[in-house]
Specification:
The complex is a heterodimer of chains A (169) and B (623). With 169 residues, chain A is mainly α. Chain A has 2 domains: 60 residues, Orthogonal Bundle (Helix Hairpins), CATH 1.10.287; 80 residues, Monooxygenase, CATH 1.20.1280.20. Chain A has 7 helices and no strands. The longest helix of chain A is centred in the last third of the chain and has 27 residues. Chain B is globular, with a radius of gyration of 26 Å. Classes of the chains: A mainly alpha (169), B alpha+beta (623).
C-alpha cells in the first residue's frame, strides 16, 4: 500500500502537513465504519479495511521516521524489521561513543538535557540531508544507510528521553 | 374520511421510518438508558420517575430483582445480592479474590475454566455476564415501554480503559439481553459528545471520568463535529467504591474490628461508608454510630480525615492525567475545558486536585450521572440511520498496547496504545518443524515487557497450514481491531494463499460456544419462534444488500463494471431476490454469500473511486 498515493501526496520526504491533515479528515468522512452502520455486512467489512489503511497511513505519514522508512520501502528496501549491522564504521563508533556518554550522564539532568538538544540537532540535519538524497534519487544503498542512521538516532533520542523522564515524577 | 394506515408494531415496513435506538450507560453503581426524541437526547425514567437504575441484582428462588428494590435487601441478604458486578467483567476469579477478600458472595469454581467467575445465588449459578444481562434487560424493557416499540439497536458504553476481555463480556451481556449492539462507545467520548454538542466548544478538552469502579482520562480535540481522541488512560480497577473501602479500612482500624467481623458486616459497612462520603461533600464532619450485631461503634468522620484517607487514590488519577497529556503531546494549559463525569467527581478533594492540575476550574454543571447515556443516545440515533446527513464523527483509540508472546516470556508490541481505531497490523511468522500444520499465537494487552505483567487476552490456534519444510511457510497473521476496540485475527499462508482456520480460546470471560449456547437457551424461552426470527433476519439483510447494490449500480455500475461483470452480478442478485421471497433461511444465506463474492471487487472499486473523486475535487481551503 502506497500511503502517499492514498493521501494524494507527492512521494517526497517532506510533506505538506496541512494538506495531510485535511485529506485525513476527508478520508475519515468517506471510510469510517460508522458511516456504514446501516449498510450490508460487505460494506461494513470494506469500510473497516479501508479505514484501517487510512489510520495506518496517517500515522506513518505524520511521523518523520516512519515516513522515511515508508518512502524507502516504496523504493524497494524494507528496513523495519532488520537485524542488519551497518557497515559504516565511523557511524558505528559514534553510536558506541554516544551510548557510553549516555551511561555516564544518566543521573545528571543537565547533561541529559544537553544530550537531548544535541541529538535533536543531529536528527534535524540528518533528516534534511536525507530529503536531499531522496530528491536527487540517490543510489538505493546510500538511501538505505541514511534511513538506518536516522532510525538509530530516533531510538537513541527515545533512550535519552526515558532517562529524562525519571526526573519528572 | 380516509382510512389511516396504521402499521403493525415491530413490522418496520417503511424503510425510512424512524428507528428506535438507545444509548445505555451500564455503570458500576448506576445504569441508565437514554434516547433521542424530537431532536433532544434525554434519559428515560421508570414508572416511578426514577432515571438511575442501581446496578444491583438480587436473586431469590423464584425471581430476579434489579435496582432500588434489590438495593433495599442488600444488607439482609448479601450473598444473593450482587453489587457492582461491572468490576467482575472480564476478570479472573483469582484477581477478584485477591483484590477484595471480604466480598460476601459465594464463588463456585468453573472446572473447565478455572479463571472464570461463577456465583452461586439462590441455588443458581450465574456469571458476571449473565448478571449484567439482567440489568440490561430491565433497561431494554423500560425503553421499549417508554418509546412504544421494539428497539433497533443500542450503543453501550464501556470505560475507555476496558481491555478486550472486558469489552467482549459487555457485548456478550448485551446480546444475551436481546440487544443489537450498534457500537461499544468509550464513556469519556460519550460524555464529550454530550458536552461538545451542548456547548459548541471547539479545541482541546479533557474528560475526567471517575465512576464507581473505573477511572478514565481522555484528551480529545473537537473540531467541526469531529471528536478525535488524542490519548486515553486510566485505571479499570479504581473508582468511588475504593473511596468507600478506604473509609471502611479507617473505621476497621479505629475499632480494632476482627477479620471475621469485617467479612460479616461488609455490606453494612460499605453502605454506610458510601453515604458518609456523599454527606462529606456538603458538610465538614459527619457524626454517627453504627451497630454491628450487639456492638455499637463511633462511625464519625471528618472531611480532613476522609481527604487524608483517599488522597493516595486521587493522586493515582492525577498521575494518569499527566501521562495522558504526555501521550497526547499537549500541555495542561492547552486544554480549554475539563469535563467531570461520574458520581465520584462530586467529592470536593477530587474537584480541587483536578482543577489544580489543569490550572482551571473543572466543569461540574453537566449532570455527571447522566451525561454518558445522553452522549451514547446521540450516537445511537446516528448509527441507527435516523440522521443520514450528520456531521458527527468519532475517532477513538486503542487504550492498551496489543502484543504477542515471544521466546523467553517477553511481549512484543504489535499495535501501540493510543493508536486510532479501527486499525490492522500484520505480522509474519514461519514454521518451526518440517510439515508443521498448526501454530499458536498468544495475544496480550498492556505496556510492560514481561508476559506475567500484561493481561492475557487469548490464545489463537491456527490450523490448516499447508505442510512445508521448516521455515518455508510465510504465515501472515493480521490483527484487526474494530471500532468497538475488539480484536479479531486472520491468518494466511502467503505462498499458497491458504486461509488458516482460527480457534480462539479467550483467557477470561466466556468462550464463543458458551455464549452461543446461552443465547440459544435464552431464545427458546422467548416468546418469538427462533426459526422465524432467523428467517426474518436473513430477509432483512437480503433487502439491505439488494437495496445498497441497486443504488450503487445506478450510480456507478456502468462506469466501474464491464458488461460481463454486470451480467454476472445481476444474475446473483436475482437469485437472492427469489430466495428472499421464500422461507428457506439457508438458501437466503447462501445467496447473500454468492452476491457478496460477485460484488466484492465492485465494492472495493467504488470505495477507491469515491476517494479519488473527493480528493481530486477538493480545493486547498476546504475542511
Amino acid at each position: 500500500m502506497n500511503f502517499f498515493t492514498l493521501f494524494d501526496l507527492p512521494e517526497t520526504l517532506d510533506v505538506d502537513k496541512a494538506k495531510l491533515s485535511a485529506t485525513y479528515q476527508v478520508l475519515q468522512q468517506l471510510t469510517h465504519p460508522d458511516k456504514f452502520s446501516t449498510g450490508s455486512d460487505q460494506e461494513k467489512r470494506i469500510a473497516l479495511q479501508k479505514n484501517s489503511q487510512v489510520n495506518d497511513g496517517y500515522s506513518v505519514l505524520k511521523a518523520p521516521l516512519a515516513r522515511a522508512q515508508h518512502l524507502l520501502s516504496l523504493r524497494g528496501v524494507d528496513i523495519k524489521d532488520e537485524q542488519h549491522t551497518m557497515q559504516d564504521t565511523t557511524f558505528l563508533m559514534q553510536q558506541m561513543e554516544w551510548r557510553e556518554e549516555l551511561e555516564d550522564a544518566q543521573n545528571d539532568e543537565d547533561a541529559l538535557w544537553q544530550f537531548h538538544i544535541d541529538v535533536t540537532k543531529t536528527i534535524q540535519s540528518e533528516y534534511s540531508q536525507l530529503t536531499d538524497l531522496f530528491d536527487a534519487h540517490a543510489d538505493i544503498n546510500i538511501l538505505a544507510n541514511a534511513v538506518r542512521k536516522l532510525t538509530f538516532m530516533y531510538k537513541f533520542q527515545e533512550q535519552v528521553q526515558q532517562h529524562l523522564d525519571k526526573f519528572e515524577d | 374520511m380516509a382510512l389511516l394506515q396504521i402499521a403493525e408494531p415491530g413490522q418496520a415496513a417503511a424503510p425510512h421510518q424512524r428507528k428506535l435506538a438507545v444509548g445505555i450507560d451500564l455503570g458500576t453503581t448506576n445504569s441508565l438508558v437514554a434516547s433521542v426524541r424530537s431532536g433532544v437526547s434525554e434519559t428515560l425514567a421508570d414508572d416511578k420517575g426514577e432515571h438511575l437504575l442501581p446496578s444491583v441484582v438480587h436473586y431469590a428462588k423464584d425471581e430476579t430483582v434489579v435496582g432500588i428494590a434489590a438495593e433495599e435487601v442488600a444488607a439482609q441478604d448479601p450473598k444473593n445480592t450482587i453489587v457492582s458486578v461491572k468490576r467482575f467483567l472480564g476478570r479472573s476469579l483469582a484477581d477478584i479474590q485477591a483484590t477484595w477478600p471480604n466480598l460476601p458472595y459465594q464463588f463456585v469454581t468453573d472446572e473447565t475454566q478455572p479463571n472464570n467467575i461463577q456465583l452461586d445465588v439462590a441455588g443458581k449459578i450465574k456469571t458476571p455476564v449473565e448478571v449484567s444481562s439482567d440489568i440490561l434487560q430491565v433497561l431494554k424493557q423500560r425503553a421499549e415501554a417508554t418509546l412504544g416499540d421494539e428497539l433497533t439497536g443500542a450503543v453501550i458504553t464501556v470505560p475507555a480503559y476496558f481491555d478486550d476481555a472486558q469489552r467482549q463480556s459487555t457485548k456478550d451481556a448485551a446480546q444475551l439481553a436481546g440487544l443489537n449492539v450498534l457500537r461499544l462507545l468509550n464513556e469519556p467520548t460519550a460524555a464529550a459528545i454530550a458536552y461538545g454538542l451542548d456547548s459548541g466548544q471547539e479545541g482541546l478538552i479533557a474528560v475526567y471520568d471517575l465512576g464507581g469502579g473505573t477511572f478514565d482520562i481522555s484528551i480529545l480535540r473537537l473540531h467541526k463535529g469531529v471528536f478525535e481522541v488524542l490519548a486515553t488512560g486510566g485505571n479499570s480497577a479504581l473508582g468511588g467504591d475504593d473511596f468507600d473501602h478506604a473509609i471502611v479500612d479507617l473505621w476497621s482500624q479505629r475499632w480494632g474490628l476482627s477479620a471475621a467481623a469485617n467479612k460479616t458486616y461488609y455490606r453494612e459497612l460499605v453502605t454506610l461508608a458510601k453515604a458518609t462520603k456523599q454527606n462529606l461533600s456538603a458538610v465538614d464532619i459527619v457524626e454517627q454510630d453504627i451497630t454491628l450485631g450487639t456492638d455499637t461503634y463511633d462511625a464519625s468522620l471528618s472531611k480532613v480525615d476522609f481527604d487524608f484517607a483517599v488522597q493516595p487514590l486521587v493522586q493515582k488519577t492525577i498521575k494518569a492525567c499527566r501521562r495522558s497529556l504526555k501521550d497526547a503531546d499537549v500541555s495542561a494549559d492547552e486544554v480549554l475545558a475539563v469535563v467531570m463525569v461520574g458520581g465520584s467527581t462530586r467529592v470536593p478533594l477530587v474537584r480541587a486536585k483536578v482543577s489544580e492540575f489543569f490550572g482551571r476550574p473543572a466543569l461540574t454543571s453537566i449532570d455527571p450521572d447522566k451525561v454518558v447515556a445522553i452522549g451514547a443516545a446521540t450516537q445511537a440515533d446516528i448509527l441507527a440511520g435516523n440522521k443520514p446527513d450528520a456531521d458527527m464523527l468519532l475517532l477513538d483509540v486503542l487504550p492498551l498496547s496489543l502484543g504477542l508472546e515471544t521466546m523467553g516470556g517477553l511481549v512484543e508490541k504489535v499495535i501501540g496504545r493510543n493508536t486510532t481505531i479501527p486499525v490492522a497490523k500484520a505480522q509474519e511468522f514461519t514454521t518451526f518443524k518440517d510439515g508443521q500444520t498448526a501454530m499458536m499465537v498468544h495475544v496480550l494487552q498492556g505496556e510492560r515487557e514481561l508476559v506475567e505483567d500484561c493481561r492475557s487476552l487469548a490464545k489463537f490456534t491456527l490450523t490448516g497450514i499447508p505442510p512445508m519444510a521448516a521455515g518455508a511457510a510465510h504465515i501472515r497473521v493480521t490483527f484487526q481491531v474494530d471500532a468497538d476496540g475488539l480484536l479479531s485475527v486472520t491468518a494466511m499462508e502467503k505462498s499458497s494463499g491458504v486461509q488458516a482456520e482460527i480457534q480462539v480460546k479467550p483467557s477470561f470471560g466466556l468462550a464463543e460456544e458458551q455464549i452461543a449456547s446461552m443465547l440459544k437457551a435464552s431464545m427458546t424461552n422467548a416468546k418469538d419462534d427462533m426459526q422465524q426470527r432467523m428467517l426474518k433476519e436473513q430477509q432483512v439483510e437480503a433487502a439491505r444488500v439488494l437495496e445498497a447494490l441497486n443504488s450503487a449500480l445506478q450510480e456507478s455500475g456502468a462506469k466501474l463494471l464491464s458488461e460481463d461483470e454486470l451480467k454476472t452480478l445481476r444474475d446473483t442478485m436475482q437469485t437472492l431476490d427469489d430466495a428472499a421471497q421464500g422461507s428457506d433461511t439457508q438458501a437466503i444465506k447462501d445467496a447473500i454469500k454468492l452476491v457478496d463474492n460477485a460484488s466484492q471487487d465492485f465494492a472495493t472499486r467504488r470505495m477507491d473511486f469515491s476517494i479519488q473523486q473527493a480528493l481530486a475535487g477538493k480545493t486547498v481551503d476546504t475542511i
